[in-house]
Amino acid sequence: xxxxxxxxxxxxxxxxxxxxxxxxxxxxxxxxxxxxxxxxxxxxxxxxxxxxxxxxxxxxxxxxxxxxxxxxxxxxxxxxxxxxxxxxxxxxxxxxxxxxxxxxxxxxxxxxxxxxxxxxxxxxxxxxxxxxxxxxxxxxxxxxxxxxxxxxxxxxxxxxxxxxxxxxxxxxxxxxxxxxxxxxxxxxxxxxxxxxxxxxxxxxxxxxxxxxxxxxxxxxxxxxxxxxxxxxxxxxxxxxxxxxxxxxxxxxxxxxxxxxxxxxxxxxxxxxxxxxxxxxxxxxxxxxxxxxxxxxxxxxxxxxxxxx
Length: 308
Description:
By secondary structure, the protein is an alpha+beta fold. It folds into three domains: 4-94 and 286-306, Rossmann fold (3-Layer(aba) Sandwich), CATH 3.40.50; 122-181, Dna Ligase, domain 1 (2-Layer Sandwich); 186-268, 2-Layer Sandwich (D-amino Acid Aminotransferase, Chain A, domain 1). Helices cover 32% and strands 25% of the residues. It is built from eight helices and 15 strands. Strands 13-12-11-14-15 form a five-stranded antiparallel sheet, sandwiched between helices. A four-stranded parallel sheet has the order 2-1-5-6. α1 (15-26) crosses α8 and α3 (96-103) crosses α4. The longest helix is centred in the last third of the chain and has 20 residues, at 283-302. The protein starts with a strand and ends in a 6-residue tail after the last helix. Its cofactor is Mg(2+); Mn(2+). GO terms for molecular function: ATP binding; ligase activity, forming carbon-nitrogen bonds; metal ion binding. It comes from Methylophaga muralis. Its EC number is 6.3.2.-.
């Protein structure tokens, strides 16, 4: 492949950026590390964009590794940049629309529900009285609930509601109530779920996360172990990734006491350090190959006579 420069967007470039830089370099591509917040719109430019370190051209592709927290206006501007890059023909991985479908947990839940992909029962609303009424009804039926921020990751800010007495202290971020059925572990006191990495329609790596606490995120101290996956698990992860229109994603699955699997979350900007440590699989290498294939496709469409 002719020389290609790949923009990696993140507000803090660490282990993942190093992994990607090395993997891209092995395929003859150059990684350029940028903070998406440093990009800007400037309609004096032919593209309408100013991308640092790309003064006279656009990236050959973009990898979105992180979008820093910010105001609604700041996040909107950053997504504007990603949308526009895609409209200009630059492969953006993952694209803005996939990120928008997954960063909002309610939107993900709706997509999974409408596609008939198993996921814990979910409610989302703005009205506190409605949320409390739902919670009381479910608690009376014997269901515990998990309350999560609409936007959030790594298990931060989530609460488990087991008793009506807890509802007086219920607090949420941004006056948005996102409630989900709590799934009891198969073995009491031993919590686990599964993270599957899907790249271009294939599960390339999987691990189980185990904890003595009901929050099983790697960032919260869970232990990670390489895992085989059943056909059912793989299909769930592949379908969930496809329904949010993501070329790749980290999909979290959980198993109930009847042995049924369901999708807990779809992450379109997934970290994979725990997965790499558990499996040894070169995930960055697979992502670099995905980037190369997208660039190759764009060049074949744009310059078919020059691509061999």
